[in-house]
Amino acid sequence: QVQLVESGGGLVQAGGSLRLACAASGRTTGTYTMGWFRQAPGKEREFVASISWSGGAAYYAGSVKGRFTISRDSAKNTMYLQINSLKPEDTAVYYCAARRPGLLKYDYWGQGTQVTVSS
Questions:
Q1: Would you state the torsion angle of the CA atoms of residues 35, 18, 79, 76, taken in this order, to the nearest 10 degrees?
Q2: pLDDT tens digit string along 41-54?
Q3: Would the CA dihedral through 24, 8, 64, 37 be positive or negative?
Q4: Cα dist. 1→24, 27, 80, 99, 100 in Å?
Q5: Looking at residue 53, what is its pLDDT?
Q6: Which of 4, 17, 31, 91 measures 20 to 30 Å from 118, CA to CA?
Q7: How far is CA 22 from the centre of its chain?
Q8: pLDDT in tens, 91-109
Q9: How far apart are CA 50 and CA 118, in angstroms?
Q10: Helix and strand counts by DSSP (H, E) for the chain
């Protein structure tokens, strides 16, 4: 089993920055693909970014590309999401997730951290 705990959310003004963290415990996630998702009020949960187990490949949703940066520190079993140039439409609960090798779906999820961007 893997437990994921997000942190770093908060209330920021538009144009500001935040750094979210996702700490993994339990089984090591060294070989897992890790990802960030978000869910805004009244909307479906959407993909934000993902990173390969080696950290060598990262993918982003078009709406965040150029503003968000995903990274991971395997030694600390922690993943990060640097969010810059925040917009009110970035307001959502941000979730981290882990996907075991060979699987198409993420099978471990955190509880989420709230990001609120004021205009």
A1: -170
A2: 999 999 999 998 77
A3: positive
A4: 10, 6, 21, 12, 11
A5: 79
A6: 4
A7: 7
A8: 999 999 999 988 889 999 9
A9: 26
A10: 0, 11
